[in-house]
């Protein structure tokens, strides 16, 4: 799956593949494609991924130790450039789609059996322990050849929830069970008030969305969430409301903000530029992890529809009207055959209009598709509840209750 569209020969995003593999299942359920078409597409992808070379070399490979590089050449499947890192989180997002395929295609025929076998092979070969970088307790954010782990580590509350669940649930190369509780201790300092809402903060909304695209955290609790008295789904709901209320107050005085138009997350932007807007000198950014929370506020007036669309399952009563208002107010300026553009900025004037991104990003379109379907039918969540590796990861993290433990939790 391409990182961006429309780009005929651009780089593929390994995380987008994870969202895309899952979207095929949604497409089947909604009648966009047949199950057989989804099977054939999924097989092409999994066979290709399984066949790509892995190794320490800086070129001519797609990954190492079961992990994949963040960006791969869309034709060859090999690492695109020396700046593309072997990514722990993007591999985990890929595995979200891989494990979805393993559990969704459950028929006994030859093709669906092969899907399950390939999915198992791809997941089992990921060496989660190695990604700790030797002496560290925490997973590194990545690795660069030859032999250098990135100094940034997965600590604090963020999209790393899915990463650690994957790493705990693996039958091979798994991390030790007690690690999850120690990881949640690194969340200290993120809990607090922001615009009238008390929650575990992470400023960009993607940090709340990504793990919950695949995992239903409603009414299941680990040690930390039991102590807080709120599950992670409820926490994400508060984060969404806090962003909406931030936009209503609009402390930055950006154009267009309000109760119906809001949404900050990692997205494209108009570019690194200084402009005067309504008598104020303002600084604008290119691609950035925009967000609003207790941890930080990074806001240049750029609205990302995925921030709202990927939150519909958390708070449909405010997210759906916002999407409708964006489409009504701005029409085909921000909405085309691929859906919403990645971002737009009413404060950044261009001639008689304002800046609108010309592309969609796979990692931003993906959460919109998956979370709309989770709202409508809980489809993706329910498929993932069947996956033994996801269930194992949650149990080893200490989660209990709800759907995870119908009667009694048994590992």
Describe the protein in words.
The protein is of the alpha+beta class. Helix content is 41%, strand content 15%. The protein has helices at residues 14-29, 35-51, 88-104, 110-124, 160-169, 179-185, 206-214, 223-228, 232-249, 305-309, 316-330, 362-377, 379-385, 388-396; strands at residues 4-5, 11-13, 63-64, 67-68, 71-73, 86-87, 142-144, 148-149, 191-194, 197-200, 266-267, 273-277, 280-284, 288-289, 291-292, 297-298, 335-336, 339-340, 344-350, 353-356, 360-361. The chain has a 3-stranded antiparallel sheet. A two-stranded antiparallel sheet has the order 1-21. Strands 2-5 form a two-stranded antiparallel sheet. Strand 9 and strand 10 form a beta hairpin. It is globular and about 60 Å long.
Count of individual beta strands? 21
- Biggest β-sheet, characterized? 3 strands, antiparallel
In the sheet with the most strands, the strands line up as: 6-7-8
Characterize the overall form: globular
Helix content: 40-55%
- Rounded to the nearest angstrom, the radius of gyration is 21 Å
| Overall pLDDT metric | 96
**Class based on secondary structure composition and strand pairing:** alpha+beta
How many helical elements? 14
First-residue to last-residue Cα separation = 35 Å
Oligomer: single chain
Provide the β-strand percentage band.
15-25%
Regions with pLDDT < 50 over 5+ consecutive residues?
A: none
Question: How are the SSEs ordered, and which strands pair?
Answer:
Blueprint lengths: L3 E2 L5 E3 H16 L5 H17 L11 E2 L2 E2 L2 E3 L12 E2 H17 L5 H15 L17 E3 L3 E2 L10 H10 L9 H7 L5 E4 L2 E4 L5 H9 L8 H6 L3 H18 L16 E2 L5 E5 L2 E5 L3 E2 L1 E2 L4 E2 L6 H5 L6 H15 L4 E2 L2 E2 L3 E7 L2 E4 L3 E2 H16 L1 H7 L2 H9 L15
Antiparallel strand pairs: 1-21, 2-5, 3-4, 6-7, 7-8, 9-10, 11-14, 12-13, 15-16, 17-18, 19-20
Helix pairs in contact: 1-2, 1-3, 1-12, 2-4, 3-4, 3-5, 5-7, 5-14, 7-12
């Amino acid at each position: 799956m391409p990182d961006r569209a429309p780009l005929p020969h651009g780089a593929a995003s390994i995380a987008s593949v994870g969202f895309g593999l899952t979207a095929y299942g949604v497409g089947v359920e909604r009648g966009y494609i047949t199950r057989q078409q989804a099977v054939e597409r999924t097989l092409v992808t999994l066979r290709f991924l399984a066949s790509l070379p892995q190794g320490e070399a800086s070129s001519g490979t797609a990954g190492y130790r079961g992990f994949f590089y963040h960006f791969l050449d869309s034709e060859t499947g090999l690492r695109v450039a020396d700046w593309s890192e072997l990514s722990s989180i993007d591999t985990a997002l890929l595995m979200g789609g891989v494990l979805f395929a393993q559990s969704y295609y459950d028929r006994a025929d030859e093709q669906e059996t092969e899907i399950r076998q390939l999915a198992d092979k791809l997941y089992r070969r990921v060496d989660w322990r190695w990604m700790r970088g030797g002496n560290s307790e925490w997973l590194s954010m990545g690795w660069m050849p030859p032999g250098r782990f990135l100094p940034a580590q997965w600590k604090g509350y963020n999209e790393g929830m899915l990463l650690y669940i994957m790493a705990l649930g693996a039958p091979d190369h798994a991390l030790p069970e007690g690690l999850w509780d120690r990881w949640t201790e690194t969340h200290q300092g993120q809990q607090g008030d922001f615009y009238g809402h008390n929650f575990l903060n992470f400023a960009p909304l993607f940090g709340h969305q990504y793990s919950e695209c695949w995992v239903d955290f409603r009414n299941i609790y680990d040690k930390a969430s039991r102590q807080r008295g709120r599950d992670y789904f409820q926490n994400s709901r508060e984060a969404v409301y806090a962003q909406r209320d931030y936009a209503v107050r609009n402390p930055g005085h950006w154009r267009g903000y309000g109760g119906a138009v809001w949404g900050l997350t990692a997205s494209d932007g108009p570019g690194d530029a200084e402009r005067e807007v309504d008598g104020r000198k303002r600084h604008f950014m290119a691609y950035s992890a925009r967000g609003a929370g207790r941890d930080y506020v990074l806001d240049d007036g750029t609205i990302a529809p995925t921030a709202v669309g990927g939150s519909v399952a958390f708070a449909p009563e405010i997210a759906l009207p916002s999407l409708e208002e964006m489409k009504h107010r701005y029409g085909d300026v921000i909405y085309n055959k691929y859906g919403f553009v990645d971002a737009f900025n009413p404060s950044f004037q261009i001639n008689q209009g304002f800046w609108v991104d010309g592309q969609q990003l796979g990692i931003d379109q993906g959460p919109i598709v998956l979370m709309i379907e989770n709202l409508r039918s809980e489809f993706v969540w329910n498929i993932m509840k069947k996956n033994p590796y996801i269930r194992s990861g949650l149990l080893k993290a200490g989660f209990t209750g709800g759907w995870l433990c119908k009667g009694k939790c048994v590992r």
